[in-house]
Amino acid sequence: MYKQNTTTLKELFSVLAAGAIVLMVVHTLGRFVYTPLLPYLIDDGQLTAPEGAAIATWNYLGYLMGAMLAIRWHRVSHIRILLPAFLVVHVITTIFVTQTDNLTAISTARWLNGVANGVVFVQAPALILEWLVLRNRSSMSGLVYVGVGLGLLLSSGLVTGTADWLEGAARWWPVALASIPLAIWGARRLIKLDVPDQVPGNDGKVKAKTPLIDRASIPLFLSYAGAGLGYILPMTFLPLLAKLELDAEHWLLDGAWLIVALCTIPAAWVWNKLGTKMGDIPALKLNFLIQLAGVLAAVIVPGALGLLLCAALVGSTFLGTVLLTQRLGRALHPHQGPRLSAAMVALYGFTQMAGPWLTKQWLDAGGTLVSAFGIGVGALVFGLLFVFFVPRPEAWHARTIPHD
């Protein structure tokens, strides 16, 4: 079997750092920077709140489509071409929105940016996980998501640090410029990884594709769908909710997103460690409970306290949901690799797209933003329920008739 056990710690952390950086670029400097930007863009008169929700929906539609592209082109040979290409798409579309106030143009650019996000968010962690598995280091896979937490902090600083001297479309310039060197370094490191196009099994043979949907994966997919819808509302609208609920000078207007960022930074390491110690399924149940408490707090605890709890609890958990679910999926179907990861992210992307769309319908119908967070509460309850139906990987593979 193709396996290397001589990889140095320096090489391991270099690869994890490259993955973390490209996720920082597409997922935080691409997607989540829009969350702290949105209240400023509304104040500048560039967008209304419903228009902002519609643009977010276009971005999430792109994310879904990008993940679906990654299902089709999932081999390592595909990744070596598509990953750097879509990092270029991210940079171009981010520069483009610095030049226009046209709603259609912004929506189109954010849709394309979402496509790039979806492809890279699938392919970079999946490629790194395959590389780690070949080196018996799969337990380190969750550390690649540290880049999202660091990126949230960076995006918060870039937005609030330049808020007083930029306006409208120009507010996108800091993240556009920051993306360029980071994308170049991360892409160059990842496309050189020594991973075969199709990874052989223990017998040295390449395994045939197995079904993506079966009795093991269905509850995991449904759980992940609930997680996607549950977390996306606070991660899109929390600063806007703070603006609606708090006084004009309250520190949480900018501080809510900063708290999310600070709590996200150690989250990947914490949940990676908890999954290794407790088992991924018990850790995922705990993760859902904490995240549910956070979104519920925004609904039932008015004002600053509810916003503070939501920011801290959601920020400290949503990356854990991603890394634990992805690792569980591969453990249940070890020969699916990037294809399984892409399918899960596509489903996650669909439910994330539904969140802003449902919020827009709710606001247009006269509902309040805080009551819209109730959608997230229900989604997380749904997701938690289905975790209880996910089989333990070792029990699944111990059946009389193997699936993989």
Chart the SSEs and their pairings.
Blueprint: H1 9-32, H2 34-43, H3 49-72, H4 76-96, H5 103-133, H6 146-161, H7 173-190, H8 217-245, H9 252-264, H10 267-278, H11 280-300, H12 303-315, H13 318-332, H14 338-364, H15 369-387, H16 393-397
Helix pairs in contact: 1-5, 1-6, 1-7, 2-8, 3-5, 3-14, 4-5, 4-7, 5-14, 6-9, 8-9, 8-11, 8-12, 8-13, 8-14, 8-15, 9-12, 10-11, 10-13, 11-12, 11-13, 11-15, 14-15
Summarize the structure in short:
With 404 residues, the protein is an all-alpha fold. It is 74% helix and 0% strand.
CATH top level assignment? Mainly Alpha
The chain-level mean pLDDT equals: 88
Series of secondary-structure elements, N-terminal to C-terminal: HHHHHHHHHHHHHHHH
Principal-axes shape call:
globular
Q: Compute the separation of the termini in Å.
A: 17 Å
Low-confidence region ranges: none
Count helical runs.
16
Rg over CA atoms, rounded to whole Å, is 20 Å
Going by CATH, what is the homologous superfamily?
MFS general substrate transporter like domains
CATH fold-type name: Growth Hormone, Chain: A
Approximately how much beta-strand content do the residues carry? under 5%
**CATH architecture annotation name:** Up-down Bundle
Overall number of strands? 0
SSE-based structural type = mainly alpha
Keywords: Membrane, Transmembrane, Transmembrane helix
Organism: Marinobacter xiaoshiensis
InterPro entries: MFS_4 (IPR010645), MFS_trans_sf (IPR036259), Sugar_transporter_CS (IPR005829)
Transmembrane segments: 12-34, 54-74, 81-99, 111-134, 143-166, 172-191, 212-232, 252-271, 370-390
